[in-house]
TrEMBL record:
<dbReference type="Pfam" id="PF01168">
    <property type="entry name" value="Ala_racemase_N"/>
</dbReference>
<feature type="domain" description="D-serine dehydratase-like">
    <location>
        <begin position="268"/>
        <end position="375"/>
    </location>
</feature>
<dbReference type="GO" id="GO:0008784">
    <property type="term" value="F:alanine racemase activity"/>
</dbReference>
<dbReference type="InterPro" id="IPR029066">
    <property type="entry name" value="PLP-binding_barrel"/>
</dbReference>
<dbReference type="InterPro" id="IPR026956">
    <property type="entry name" value="D-ser_dehydrat-like_dom"/>
</dbReference>
<dbReference type="Pfam" id="PF14031">
    <property type="entry name" value="D-ser_dehydrat"/>
</dbReference>
<dbReference type="InterPro" id="IPR042208">
    <property type="entry name" value="D-ser_dehydrat-like_sf"/>
</dbReference>
<keyword id="KW-0413">Isomerase</keyword>
<comment type="similarity">
    <text>Belongs to the DSD1 family.</text>
</comment>
<protein>
    <submittedName>
        <fullName>Alanine racemase</fullName>
        <ecNumber>5.1.1.1</ecNumber>
    </submittedName>
</protein>
<dbReference type="InterPro" id="IPR001608">
    <property type="entry name" value="Ala_racemase_N"/>
</dbReference>
<dbReference type="InterPro" id="IPR051466">
    <property type="entry name" value="D-amino_acid_metab_enzyme"/>
</dbReference>
<keyword id="KW-0456">Lyase</keyword>
Length: 391
């Protein structure tokens, strides 16, 4: 492209042919379809869907989920909670990460400012520290007690005597009990529909059992919150559950494709990249998207199909048979044929535009400041949606 042509391109609406690369591309139609799919499933179960916006981290994306105004959301950082409250008017927020006592005052001040912030904890110490801060600030978040449904991370087992002790500590410290919360993290390692349905039932049963134990002990337990993207899609029965949390479903990714929750046609985010070199003697094509653009997430490495650092597509988003990001340096991606694919390495000219589907949408998104939004199968960029970052 000549210098004159480059200057002319900059004065026109950006397209996939003119955007500087690497860039984070969001297919709005696919995202809308993914949202509608899970909303429909949850409506069928009669439960609230509280999206986890740790994946999108964008007011504009959140508005596609809530076109009629702010609704209940989940976040993974207090910075997210502050951003969505301040920029989007969201006030019903669950912070679904165990409470750091040093962040308790920051959380309490959000409540003082009118946000219904619900935090997560599973120890008496956290309950006491939150109560002390609440007494000082004059406002206090309500608290979920985290339940361990599969040994994946934190939380208490439903029959652990500590469950009642934590609830009692919350009551003694004047901290409202929001309910119980759990997350079937082990579901990300499954790929069989029956096993996923069983994981969903295990998640539901653990949360409901914990809620019943609390009620039997005399405590109110208004919210029974479960959720992961795999279990949300494969749940057969949500009796006793009041809400489901899920996040990556808005965009999906190659890990979710490997789990069996989506197809590659559902993956709404990709990285736009440019061919910058060729090494045919090594079976390589070089692009300008390395791990700084893709992240170092190798989530498909233990799945049936290993996509390296991402699945390579043409500029329209159609997968190129067998071609993956096999290696990643800081700013270089090395494309090669996946072992055993049986395909032929394509002869791509320098300057060819490609798109790469990510292993993990959350991790890849975190590398970027904004989404470049496309729709209706057009290469034209119709919107620029900023993302928030930080903790």
């Amino acid at each position: 492209m000549t210098q004159t042509a480059t200057l002319e391109a900059r004065t026109q609406a950006p397209t996939l042919a003119t955007l500087p690369t690497p860039a984070l591309i969001l297919d709005r139609d696919r995202m809308d379809r993914n949202i509608a799919r899970l909303k429909g499933l949850m409506d069928g179960h009669g439960v609230v869907l509280r999206p986890h916006l740790k994946t999108a981290k964008s007011i504009d994306a959140a508005r596609r989920f809530f076109p009629d105004g702010p609704g209940p959301i989940t976040v993974s950082t207090l910075a997210e909670a502050e951003y969505f409250a301040r920029e989007g008017g969201f006030t019903d927020i669950t912070y679904a990460v165990g409470l750091d006592p040093y962040k308790a005052e920051r959380a309490a001040r959000m409540v003082a400012d009118g946000v219904d912030l619900k935090i997560t904890l599973d120890t008496v110490e956290q309950a006491v520290s939150l109560g002390e801060v609440g007494a000082t600030v004059g406002a206090c978040p309500s608290a979920f007690i985290e339940i361990d449904c599969d040994g994946h991370r934190g939380g208490l087992l439903p029959d652990d005597p500590m469950l009642i002790r934590v609830a009692r500590a919350l009551a003694d410290c004047n901290v409202p009990l929001a309910g119980v919360l759990t997350h079937a993290g082990d579901s990300y390692g499954l790929n069989d529909p029956e096993a996923l349905a069983q994981a969903a039932e295990g998640e539901r049963a653990a949360a409901v059992a914990a809620a019943e134990a609390l009620r039997k002990a005399g405590f109110q337990c208004p919210i029974v919150s479960v959720g992961s993207t795999p279990t949300a899609h494969f749940a057969r029965n949500l009796d006793g559950v009041t809400e489901v949390r899920a996040g990556v479903f808005m965009f999906f990714d190659l890990v979710m494709n490997g789990v069996g929750v989506c197809t590659t046609d559902d993956i709404a985010v990709s990285i736009l990249t440019t061919v910058i070199g060729k090494k045919p003697e090594k079976g390589w094509i070089l692009v300008d998207a390395g791990w700084m653009a893709m992240s170092r997430d190798r989530g498909t490495a233990n799945q049936a199909v290993d996509y390296g650092y991402g699945l390579v597509c043409d500029v329209a988003g159609n997968p190129i048979p067998g071609l993956i990001v096999d290696q990643a340096n800081q700013e270089h991606g090395i494309l090669a044929l996946r072992k055993g694919s049986g395909e032929t390495l394509p002869d791509l000219a320098i300057g060819t535009r490609l798109r790469i589907m990510p292993n993990h949408a959350c991790a890849t998104g975190a590398q970027h400041e904004a989404y470049e939004v496309v729709a209706n199968g057009s290469p034209e960029v119709i919107a620029h949606w900023p993302r928030m970052r930080g903790w």
